[in-house]
Amino acid sequence: MTTNSVPARAGRRPTPVSLVSWLMLVPCLVVFALFIIWPLGKSVSLSLHGSDLFGRPDAYVGLQHYKDMLGSAEFRHILWVTFAFVLLTVIPGVLGALVVVLLLEQHIKGIRIFRTAFALPFAFSVASASVIFATIYNPAIGLANGLLGRFGVDRIGWLTDPSWALISVAITTVWMSIGYNVLVLSAGIGAIPAEINEAATLDGAGGFSASRYITIPLLGPQLFFLIVISTIQSLQGFGQIKILTPEGGPEQSTKTLVYSIYHTAFANNASDFGAASAQAIVLLVILLACTAIQFGVLERRVHYK
Amino acid sequence: MRTGRVVTYVVLIGAALLVIFPVYYVIAGSVMSPGQISSYPPDLVPHGLFTGNYKGATSSGTPIGQQYLNSILQTSIITLSQLITSVLAAYAFVFMKMWGRTVLFGLFLATLMVPWESIVLPNYLTITSWELNGHGLTKTYAGTMIALVLPFLANAFGVFLLRQSFLQFPVELRDAATIDGAGHWRFLSRILLPLNKPALTAVGLYVFLSAWNQFFWPLLIGDTASRRTLQIGISQLNDAEAADPGLILAGVTLSILPTLAIVIFGQRFIVRGLTAGAIR
Hints:
CATH class of the largest domain in chain A: Mainly Alpha
Mean pLDDT of chain B: 90
Largest sheet of chain A: 2 strands, antiparallel
Strand content of chain B: under 5%
Structural class of chain B: mainly alpha
Oligomer: heterodimer
Shape of chain B: globular
Number of strands of chain A: 2
Number of strands of chain B: 2
């Protein structure tokens, strides 16, 4: 903990430090109160109210939205799509980055070029990445089918086939996140004391066995952090779904919870802020649970130190 | 051992090519003629520099130029404001005696756990209910810009990063400044900030990147194309010009220039910001 505090200044008019310091926090506090804390309460309240023709809140309906949601097959489908999307993005994103980082550790030449290459997707916003992939996935003139066609593979309806749409959106998401994952794992490897690797080399562990028994276990905290953070980001994924599959995909195959919140609140002619808010509260609870797991486990540490 | 080496390089180069390919394709495709980009089998190396896509992207029904300015305005205001509010708050947390400091800092951190998507609806209702000069906020240009930035004028992430950095500031230096008669303001502006440039740069670039890349909120705010941000602009370009991929890619290339520059030249600074939570 910090013990910083400015000593009283002799010979000057004493300033009420506590008041000044509170004033310095006021800009942040006002923004947080207006746009985070109050809306949090308002979300709960909205979820307990019905909606008028324009989607604006009207009569109190109690837990009706929650009952409707839990009893509907559509909502179960949405949760399933959300869960599938998390699996399809987190597992390849983290495993792919781990393989890359372990290979980068093998004293290869040109490591800086590789690092920069893997960092490049950072520069891409969700919109720019999604638009590029939309171009690549284009069924008629897109590159994905063009290149596969050269190997005699039939055209794939990347975004129009219900069994492919979610995978295609997940590929885009993995591409966007791989750079960050590589970066976190590289930083984690950099923090492993050199003596450990030297001792392992002296004991005859190299290459694969060093990775298996030393590097991966020591990367435990970073791997765990990445899994949780990627899960949280996947659960919040929206832009790529909206841009690549504007209507939530063929047969609602890409309709995740966040997309459904947007759709329920803003869809033409069916705007319902009450029902959308109930879904937003479900999202909040799921994400808070993820964060709680993260803090709970990180406190106990993943590996022995 | 030898074959292991070869496999390492093959896998790494393959992975790097997969990651780089979309980056290459957006730039290469933006200078390909319409005939070349949709040719079959695909032809991946541009035949010379075709500039028609850029002319098309900047003169299409989607006003990319105006949207570029909107994004610059929105991003600059958010970045500047978050730097100022974060410096003030981090300074108070580290260098000032204050009642309830620990609890307040806990509250700041707690705001980071609230996902934007779970509070976006009430915020939308609030912002659209506010008025400026008798017009709804989102009904005028100035109002739209205000609506775009208001919820993001402060963020606890910047406070958190700067606090970490300020905490490492040598106690002796601060004591020396105090003995020399430097008050809080003088110490902050003349000594602390100049010595914390790397942390300030990290926060600034991080905020810039995330503001520039925002999608959900700008999608809801902005009633006409000329009041929208660039991110929404390129996604609408994608819908409107689907038959002309070169033109779309030219628009995307223009939109990533600022962030590409930041990632290539400011890499070491963003690494610091992005991994702040990961390495303990």
